[in-house]
Amino acid sequence: MANSDGFLLLFGGTSLSKKLTYSVVVLVLLFLTYFWVTKFGLSLPPLEGPMFLLKKDAWFLVVLGLIATVLALVSLFVEFKLSSPVTFIGWVLYFPVLFNVLVPMFVLFFSVIGIFYTPWLIFTDIPFFNELINGVIRFPEDSIYGVIDYLGYILVVAGLLIYIIGLYQILSHATKKRALLTKGLYAVVRHPQYLGISIWTLGFAILGWRLINYMMWLTLCYSYILLAEYEEVDLIKVLDQEYLQYRDRVPFMVPYPISIILKPFSVLRSRLKLRLIIYTALYILLLITFYYALEPYVVMFR
Predict the structure, then answer these.
(1) Is 109:49 a contact under the CB 8 Å cutoff?
(2) Pairwise CA distance, residues 32 & 91, whole Å
(3) How many CA within 13 A on the CB side of residue 262?
(4) Residue 134: CA atoms inside 13 Å, Cβ hemisphere, count?
(5) What does residue 38 show for φ and ψ, rounded to 5 degrees?
(6) Which of 43, 59, 117, 120 has a Cα-to-Cα distance from 101 of 20 to 30 A?
(7) CB contact at 8 A, 99 and 116
């Protein structure tokens, strides 16, 4: 059995986990379909309209993001963890971020691409959420846009490389007899694939230029932290001291030297519930911080 990121190869898991996972997926998809149909009817939006406003150079990025998302979702449901439904919902909410790279959402509703924004449509009637979703970030200095866009591209490329390399390493290792992979990226962090996902999804969030992107990125990262924590519970049950020793010497998801800052919190390793409370509090704090830091620069165009 191999450690990691959706590829523990604990094939099957419990029947309860499978049923819960499938139930959540089906219910979420049915709800989104119902919401779209009740709001717009059975017919899809026309393909024509303001399609000329789409950024031609952004299509490659969006397609790349869609492929990476599919790979992430496939790996997510290999083991059917109880935390997998939470991460699936995180992906559903994050999914529209990919299309933010093209044009503002309210324009896309005139074309068939608008259907991909259904997860956010539920909230657009609430003024607060409408500002988050439809508001576009605009800074007074034009020169900053190029710098931030380049940062976004760098994060997308770097994150996808980390994710692909980590995926290759764990798949290559899966056929070997040794149970625990401790080489390559797995010698740097215990969950390199999740680190890669967090990085490339942040890149897309930056390139979309909207506040909602950062909210959904934080939500996705939070869900993956929960997934990783529950994966490790199973790994400790199966591998016992071997994994405990690996955990003691290799950082969770943030590599050295940044992880050194978190060293004083090592006392929390045996207290999962307390860690989850801290993660949740930090998630909420970051949501508030992102909102108040970026909201002054949000502009509504309708």
Answers:
(1) no
(2) 14
(3) 17
(4) 19
(5) -70, -25
(6) 43
(7) yes
Render the burial of 18-29: b for 16+ CB within 10 Å, e for the rest.
Answer: eebbeebbeeee
Instruction: Return the axis-axis angle of helices 59-76 and 192-208, rounded to nearest 10°.
Output: 150
Residues in the chain: 302
pLDDT in 10s for each residue of the chain, 302 residues: 445 554 443 333 445 567 777 788 889 999 998 988 888 777 777 665 556 667 777 888 999 999 999 888 888 776 555 567 889 999 999 999 999 888 766 666 667 777 888 899 888 888 899 889 888 899 988 889 889 999 999 999 999 999 999 988 888 877 665 678 888 899 999 999 999 999 999 999 999 999 999 999 999 999 999 999 888 888 888 888 888 889 888 888 888 765 555 555 555 666 888 888 989 999 999 999 999 999 999 988 76
| CA separation for the pair 12, 14 (Å, rounded) | 6
| C-alpha to C-alpha distance for 120 and 39, rounded to whole angstroms | 13
Distance (Å, whole) CA 285 – CA 220: 15
Alpha-helical (H) ranges within 174-210 are 192-208
Q: Which two tokens stand for residue 211?
A: 């506040």
Q: Are 162 and 185 in contact (CB under 8 A)?
A: yes
Q: Which token pair is 285?
A: 């704090």
In 3D, which of 205, 214, 195, 202 has the Cα closest to residue 256?
A: 195
Q: What is the largest CA-CA distance in the chain?
A: 61
